[in-house]
TrEMBL record:
Membrane-traversing stretches: none
Name of the protein in its database record: Deazaflavin-dependent oxidoreductase, nitroreductase family
InterPro entries: F420H2_quin_Rdtase (IPR004378), Split_barrel_FMN-bd (IPR012349)
Native organism: Micromonospora rifamycinica
A Gene Ontology term for the protein's cellular component: plasma membrane
Gene Ontology MF terms in the entry: coenzyme F420 binding; oxidoreductase activity
Catalytically driven reaction(s): oxidized coenzyme F420-(gamma-L-Glu)(n) + a quinol + H(+) = reduced coenzyme F420-(gamma-L-Glu)(n) + a quinone
Coiled coil: none
Homology family: Belongs to the F420H(2)-dependent quinone reductase family.
Length: 145
């Protein structure tokens, strides 16, 4: 993913502020969002615009892989970043001060069965978000390339 292109940050006020602090401090501010809850910055390519889009997401780990949840607070539709990854699974991640390329994939049902409880242990509200929607909220595996 080219790093010389301008990146469009998430449009939501507090999320955009979080991203700006994260980037400006090399992850010193923002990596640990709340006590024991860590975030990464995910940059995807917009499936319609072609622009690079960055958002902050809570993450977990599965071995060397990073896990994120496409919850969008339990909205009926998938978040844009997830739809972007379905179109182009090559992305970039910043974890703290380190930035690297990843390839994304949706966890298979058997994997999700163990990954979902691991992610709800980090952020229990994911179970509430799942109860708000008929769609199965995906767990996304980000594999470092």
């Amino acid at each position: 993913m080219p790093t010389n292109e301008q990146v469009v940050d998430s449009p939501e006020g507090w999320v955009a502020d979080h991203i700006r602090r994260y980037v400006a401090t090399g992850g010193v501010e923002g990596h640990e969002w709340q006590p024991g809850v860590f975030t990464l910055l995910l940059t995807t390519r917009g499936r319609r615009s072609g622009k690079l889009r960055r958002t902050a997401l809570i993450y977990g780990r599965d071995g060397a892989d990073y896990l994120v949840v496409a919850s969008q607070g339990g909205a009926p539709q998938h978040p844009s970043w997830y739809l972007n990854l379905l179109d182009d699974p090559e992305a970039e991640v910043q974890v703290g001060g380190e930035t690297f390329a990843v390839r994304a994939r949706t966890a298979e049902p058997a994997e999700r069965a163990t990954m979902w409880p691991a992610m709800t242990a980090i952020w229990p509200a994911y179970d509430e978000y799942q109860s708000r929607t008929d769609r199965e909220i995906p767990v996304v595996v980000l594999h470092r390339r």
